Amino acid sequence: MINKMKVLKFGGTSVGSPESIKEVAKIVSNIKGRKIVVLSAMSQTTNVLHQITDAISKAKFDEAFSILEMMVDRYKTVVEGLFLKQNNKNTANSFVEERFDFIRSYAHEGSIKDIEAVEKIIVAQGEILSTNLFNMYMNEMNVSSSLLSAFDFMRIDEGGEPDSKFITKSLGEVLKENLETEIFVTQGYICLSHLGDIDNLKRGGSDYSASLIGAAIEAEEIQIWTDIDGMHNNDPRYVDNTFSLKEISFDEAAELAYFGAKILHPQSVIPAKEKNVPVLLKDTFNPDSSGTIIRNCKVPTNKVRAIAAKDGITAIRIKSYRMLMAYGFLKNIFEVFEKFQTSIDMITTSEVAVSLTIDDSTFLKEIKEELENIGSVKVDTDLSIICLAGDFSQKQKGASASIFNSLTNIPIRMISYGGSNYNVSLVVNTENKIQALKDLNSGVFNKD
């Protein structure tokens, strides 16, 4: 185990401009002790790299080159605003050109054999660019830091899951060989597959990278720096008078992250929880704010702690009188979703019907057709799940009353209560979501 190291992750907005990169460098320099800095790609870079790949896949090479040139111009503007010394500007611009020349090499006939593999290679350049430019800037500021390639330690297995043993072993070896290095800079999101090909941890994976690294080295703390001052009790994009939670449990944070809290990737707390590594959520643009600490802590009883919402939900109801007092019925339903690799968010049952929700409608048509062999099927779209996290154990009284009393004017499509001691979930029409969040803020937290 590597003692007393911290893991600091900064998202795309935190490294989205020369000014914000300088702020990140200041934050990193002011935090004492050895640390690993995990960076996302600059804001919007990943989306644009996907656009370039899409253009290449359709043989729209002129379009790909046009987007590339805009990206080169953007990065050169960043270089101009970031570095002071001309020789460092020249080095940084040469690196930018090199990376985009590499992408250009795929933008011609005959270069594409496996577009999925090419896309992963192209998208990885975003994190490679941000980490290299940041490390160059740190060195210009006479802050000693070393670039650590995620490809040297971050790997997923054949099933696409992180290879924890490999990560722990490889990362431990690198750190032990560089005991004098105080600051390591590495990429979030990207990794190698079990075959050694460039891959990634899917969208939002930089949080996951930080958590995996923190768990692997049993870090003192994992810090997730973003553009909001911690996890709020409600969604500040839609609701006024929200407040940042000082502390929240891993279980509550996991529920909120999965059901829509944008500040945290849903999977990111799992490795940290397993190794009991605290996760601190901080605001890059207000570093003096206390933020939110996520750790194993006692959840305040009989109380809703926070609310999050998730859009893009589809509800499916399967009704059949053959279900009455019959075993194996649910198994047949679940096998349909397993066949099409579609996960289920919520589920409720009655004597003759099952209602469930999904957030991926890619195979909705095929799923509906197969379910119609089991019973009558009704599909509702344009729905949202509202998740309320807190202590909802059977010993507690009154918490549910405040929830439902707040929503007397909101039609509720589904309710999930009892599946977890830390979560009550409601399905509403998306058009009613914002009003529901506001009514809950008023009724549950007494915040108008």
Describe the structure.
The chain has 448 residues and is α/β, with parallel strands linked by helices. The chain folds into two domains: 5-227, 3-Layer(aba) Sandwich (Carbamate kinase), CATH 3.40.1160.10; 304-445, VC0802-like. It is 39% helix and 21% strand. It is built from 13 helices and 16 strands. An eight-stranded mixed β-sheet has the order 3-4-2-1-7-9-10-8. Strands 12-13-11-14-16-15 form a six-stranded antiparallel β-sheet. Strand 15 (414-417) and strand 16 (423-429) form a beta hairpin. Helix 2 (45-57) packs antiparallel against helix 5 and helix 3 (61-82) packs antiparallel against helix 4. The longest helix has 26 residues, at 115-140. It is globular. It starts with a strand and ends with a helix. The model has no long low-confidence stretch (mean pLDDT 91).
Topology:
Blueprint: E1 5-10, H1 18-30, E2 34-39, H2 45-57, H3 61-82, H4 86-104, H5 115-140, E3 146-148, H6 164-177, E4 183-187, E5 190-192, E6 198-200, H7 205-216, E7 221-226, E8 247-249, H8 250-258, H9 269-274, E9 279-283, E10 292-295, E11 304-319, H10 329-339, E12 347-349, E13 353-358, H11 364-371, E14 376-390, H12 399-406, E15 414-417, E16 423-429, H13 433-445
Parallel strand pairs: 1-2, 1-7, 2-4, 3-4, 7-9, 8-10
Antiparallel strand pairs: 5-6, 9-10, 11-13, 11-14, 12-13, 14-16, 15-16
Helix pairs in contact: 1-3, 2-3, 2-5, 3-4, 4-5, 6-7, 12-13
| Overall shape | globular
Order of helices and strands: EHEHHHHEHEEEHEEHHEEEHEEHEHEEH
Main beta-sheet strand count, sense and barrel state = 8 strands, mixed
| CA-based gyration radius | 24 Å
CATH class of the largest domain: Alpha Beta
Number of helices: 13
Q: Fill in the CATH topology of the largest domain.
A: Carbamate kinase
Pick out the low-confidence regions: none
CATH architecture verdict of the largest domain: 3-Layer(aba) Sandwich
**What is the β-strand count?**
16
- For the termini, the CA-CA separation is 48 Å
CATH level-four homologous superfamily name of the largest domain? Acetylglutamate kinase-like
Q: How big a fraction of the residues is strand?
A: 15-25%
Count of discrete domains = 2
Average residue pLDDT: 91
Structural class based on helices, strands and sheet pairing: alpha/beta
Widest sheet: strand order?
A: 3-4-2-1-7-9-10-8
